[in-house]
Specification:
Layout lengths: L4 E13 L11 E4 L2 E6 L1 H15 L6 E4 L2 H13 L4 H15 L15 E4 H15 L6 H9 L4 H6 L15 E3 L2 E3 L6 E7 L13 E19 H8 L1 H17 L6 H4 L7 E7 L22 H18 L6 E6 L12 H21 L1
Antiparallel strand pairs: 1-9, 1-10, 2-3, 3-7, 4-5, 6-9, 7-9, 8-9, 10-11
Helix pairs in contact: 1-8, 2-3, 2-4, 3-4, 3-5, 4-5, 7-8, 8-11
């Protein structure tokens, strides 16, 4: 099967906010093109995508990243075994997890020593094997390991799984998400705030609490890519097509939750450009190595124009043009020849991916 990649490029404006904080509580930044840019880490946006998956996808397709994997398997054993007491379920689950190669915490009883990514199907199969072994079945450790490797969840196939104690349980990520950066220079600012004690005496002139919150505002360039063939190896064609579409929708519409109650900064993109490629993924962040100027009013229009001009230069000189491309939003300045609304974009590019997978099967 020839290579098949879906690239997602997004221009999105975020108002005063602290979407993603560093260890000091400041909004994350990065120096790019010699100037300071706002930054939102890839981990933050992948987490936001996974949370949106939980809202929109069947839980059977999803997994959990947790140290409480024994409890998860024990709940499945209770469902399978029926008559087992809770303590017995936990004992069987603990033994099953160890047999599968999950390293357990030496200090915290019945917890894994690291966060373990496990799908519903994997937890259920571990439970079935544990009950069968308890009932006298000849079930070896290899069967438990095989159960923990088979039937990955959608988010596991997309974002990967690393098990340092047993690399045979690893899953390579089919999706890569870049750190989002502002297309222009930013300077963090501070919000000085006070809180008033509602029950304080009337003659009390002081505030009940004083504080500051650091924030910035930015027009971001966001990028992600999905290796469709890699995803298909893990999930099969039908689920892959649905997953690519659902990932695109979630990546476009999600927002990390950092300080959201304080700033109410949930926005949607100004521009989305999706391409299907057969050579390699192409991150177009080079369009913003020279910061976009806000002269003339705002950064969005200049950012979309810069993205379109840079993509044209890349396609003429280095990479081939996409097999297909769509855009939505400020399309009059955009990079694609086909301008659609968002629902049309999701439907058309998913149909195109399906056609390419069917062609590969025929060949």
């Amino acid at each position: 099967m020839s290579n098949l990649y879906v690239d997602l490029h997004i221009i999105q404006t975020v108002p005063p906010s602290c979407v993603n904080r560093d260890d000091t509580g400041s909004p994350k930044t990065a120096v790019y093109g010699g100037t300071t840019r706002a930054r939102v880490s890839s981990q933050a946006w992948k987490r936001a995508v996974r949370l949106m998956f939980k809202e929109n996808l069947n839980n059977e397709l999803l997994g959990d990243r947790t140290k409480h994997v024994v409890e998860l398997v024990a709940s499945q054993i209770k469902a399978v075994g029926g008559s087992f007491e809770e303590e017995k379920c936990m004992k069987l689950a603990n033994d099953a997890c160890k047999a599968a190669g999950i390293s357990m915490d030496k200090k915290k009883e019945q917890q894994s020593d690291v966060l373990m990514f496990i799908s519903c199907a994997q937890a259920r199969e571990l439970a079935r094997l544990a009950v069968e072994k308890h009932n006298g079945g000849d079930i070896g450790n290899d069967a438990f390991k095989a159960a923990l490797k088979a039937q990955p969840s959608v988010d596991m196939a997309l974002f990967g799984r690393m098990v340092a104690s047993d690399p045979s349980l690893n899953y390579d990520a089919a999706a890569q998400v870049a750190h989002s950066i502002s297309t222009h220079t930013v300077h963090n600012e501070y919000d000085y705030f006070t809180a008033v004690d509602d029950l304080a005496p009337e003659d009390n002139a002081g505030a009940g609490h004083l504080g500051t919150v650091e924030f910035n505002s930015a027009t971001l360039y966001r990028y992600a890519t999905v290796n469709v063939n890699e995803l298909c190896k893990s999930l099969g064609k039908d689920i892959t097509i649905k997953t690519v579409r659902d990932f695109a929708k979630a990546f476009v519409c999600s927002m990390p939750t950092g300080k959201q109650n304080t700033f109410a900064n949930r926005t949607l993109p100004d521009y989305v450009y999706i391409t299907v490629r057969s050579d390699q993924p192409v991150n177009l962040s080079g369009a913003f190595e020279k910061p976009v100027s806000g002269k003339g009013g705002g950064y969005v229009e200049g950012s979309v124009k810069a993205l379109a001009a840079y993509s044209d230069m890349i396609y003429k000189n280095f990479a081939s043009k996409p097999l297909a491309a769509w855009d939505v939003g400020l399309s009059s300045f955009g990079a694609a020849e086909k301008h659609v609304d968002f629902s049309e974009l999701l439907g058309e590019f998913a149909e195109y991916v399906e056609e390419k997978l069917v062609e590969a099967e025929v060949m």
